[in-house]
């Protein structure tokens, strides 16, 4: 389970570049839940993932994952609990190493001692099977350098690597945004399969309305560093892309009203 309470993060505080990226985010994600996060540009979606993965320490609030308080843990220590896939297919893998070497690295991650020969062979067999099930022909390219793969193949592989040693939390940050539509579709199908099969606790950021309504069991909407909507169950299942657009329009309309009220007050009192 992931338990975020009162997360606050301000970049460049006290300067003219100050950005209040997280303004008190509370979010409880039950174990095995697949949460999709959407929001306006700059609303804090990536900052939220960065706060959880430990790219920086939050100014205040607490982060608990799988029963541990990881709020002050450095990033490398959190990496033993968290799998992450970014938008850029070049992140998360070692480009000069082969597909097989990258997978072997991912398999060994977090293990204190090297595997015995039998365990190693069993692991390699299971791995080959999982690579075959990706359906991308990667099983024939284990010797090839990662750099020679297409973006879709790389993202599929990165996803597999991030989930190979079952993480307590999977973070997906617009991981299909840089792919062509066909590759994006197959990576999304793969995501859904891996998350369901492994019952992985997942937080996925997307800009795709289609993905937001079609994936996951819960939808969280962010705006200006806050959670402004949290839909699940029947409400989530019934959701259409047009409903989400209506909600965004409503947020904008409210802001315009707030801005004009502020302007009126300013004219009245200043
Ligand atoms: N390392 C940083 N230093 C300074 N400002 C930052 C940093 N990271 C994020 N920000 C700012 O914090 C705000 C939230 O950014 P964030 O990337 O979390 O938004 P987002 O919701 O993921 O946006 P998008 O949908 O456009 O990717 C933005 O104003 C951004 O410019």
UniProtKB/TrEMBL annotation:
GO terms for molecular function: ATP binding; ATP hydrolysis activity. It comes from the Bacteria. The keyword ATP-binding applies. The keyword Cell wall biogenesis/degradation does not apply. It is a peripheral membrane protein. Transmembrane segments: none annotated. Residues 2-249 form the ABC transporter domain. GO terms for cellular component: plasma membrane. It holds the Pfam family ABC_tran. Coiled coil: none annotated. Keywords: ATP-binding, Cell membrane, Membrane, Nucleotide-binding, Transport. PROSITE patterns: ABC_TRANSPORTER_1, ABC_TRANSPORTER_2. It is found in: Cell membrane. This is ABC transporter related protein. It comes from Aminomonas paucivorans DSM 12260.
């Amino acid at each position: 389970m992931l338990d975020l309470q009162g997360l606050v993060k301000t970049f460049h505080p006290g300067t003219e570049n100050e950005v209040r990226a997280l303004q008190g985010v509370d979010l409880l994600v039950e174990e095995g839940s697949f949460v999709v996060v959407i929001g306006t540009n700059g609303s804090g979606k990536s900052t939220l993932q960065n706060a959880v993965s430990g790219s920086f320490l939050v100014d205040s609030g607490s982060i608990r994952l799988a029963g541990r308080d990881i709020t002050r843990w450095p990033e490398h220590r959190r990496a033993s609990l968290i799998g992450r896939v970014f938008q850029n297919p070049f992140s998360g893998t070692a480009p000069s190493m082969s597909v097989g070497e990258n997978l072997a690295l991912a398999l060994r991650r977090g293990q204190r001692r090297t595997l015995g020969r039998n365990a190693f062979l069993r692991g390699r067999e299971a791995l080959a099977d999982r690579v075959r099930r990706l359906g991308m022909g990667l099983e024939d390219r284990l010797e090839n350098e990662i750099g020679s793969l297409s973006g879709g193949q790389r993202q599929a592989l990165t996803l597999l690597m991030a989930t190979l040693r079952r993480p307590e939390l999977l973070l997906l940050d617009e991981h299909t945004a840089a792919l062509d539509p066909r590759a994006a579709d197959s990576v999304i199908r793969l995501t859904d399969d891996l998350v369901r099969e492994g019952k992985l606790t997942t937080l996925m950021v997307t800009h795709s309305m289609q993905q937001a309504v079609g994936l996951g069991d819960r939808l969280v909407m962010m705006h200006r560093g806050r959670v402004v909507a949290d839909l699940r169950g029947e409400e989530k299942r019934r959701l259409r892309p047009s409903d989400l657009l209506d909600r965004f329009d409503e947020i904008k309309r409210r802001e315009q009203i707030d801005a004009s009220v502020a302007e009126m007050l300013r004219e009245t009192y200043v």
